[in-house]
Amino acid sequence: MKRGNFRFELRRKLFHFLFGIFLIFILFYSGKRNLIIFLSSFLIMGCIMIILMRQGRRIPIAYWFEEKFERENVRFPGYGAFWYVVGALLLALFLGSTCETAAAIVALAAGDSAATIFGIRGRHPLPHNPRKTVEGSVAFFVFTLPACLFVGWMGVALAALATVVESLDTPVDDNLLIPVAAILFFTVL
């Protein structure tokens, strides 16, 4: 973890959460089509910046975000943000209803943020993934429950599934894994 600092992760995850709330705001007040346009544009600009940064160019805004929010030893600059935007875009593209999309964004934004914040201080490692904690998983589940506001009681099942998926030890970033699980969940139901 960058600087080994709880405050650093708190800042990262607060931004992670607020960006998700912003996406839900766009979804309900501007529509799914505009959310897709926003995320696609953001993704294209982000990819251009990633390419330029990998070539050694210093882009002031990207550099600032990298300094403030990027963990150390990531595969490429903007790694977490890239997968977050890809995951949110997949939700907007593949989920049929606005409410399903919003519920899944809650898992991605609130659940994932809470898992990190509470998990860092957790003392009880998960049996199947000692890098994550029981406290983090409980927080993920609880903070994903507001998905019920959008999809009723199905939000509880979504929270449970997303909690399990987030706890797995996989090489796939959870900013992609959680949306894919949500898409499969709503497709099957």
Which terms summarize this structure?
189 residues; mainly alpha; 0% strand
Describe the structure.
It is a single chain. The chain has one domain. The mean pLDDT is 95. It is globular, with a radius of gyration of 16 Å. The chain has helices at 6-30, 32-54, 60-69, 79-94, 98-120, 134-144, 148-151, 154-167, 174-188. With 189 residues, it is an all-alpha fold. Helix content is 75%, strand content 0%. The longest helix is centred in the first third of the chain and has 25 residues, at 6-30. The protein has nine helices and no strands.
A few lines on this structure:
With 189 residues, this protein is mainly α.
Low-confidence residue ranges: none
**Percentage of residues assigned to helices:** over 70%
Overall, the morphology is globular
Structural class: mainly alpha
By DSSP (H or I, 4+ residues per run), the number of helices equals: 9
Can you tell me the number of structural domains?
A: 1
Taken in chain order, the helices and strands follow as HHHHHHHHH
Cα-atom Rg, whole angstroms?
16 Å
Q: How would you classify the quaternary structure?
A: single chain
Strand content: under 5%
Helix and strand arrangement:
Elements: H1 6-30, H2 32-54, H3 60-69, H4 79-94, H5 98-120, H6 134-144, H7 148-151, H8 154-167, H9 174-188
Helix pairs in contact: 1-2, 1-5, 2-4, 4-5, 4-9, 5-6, 5-8, 5-9, 6-8, 8-9
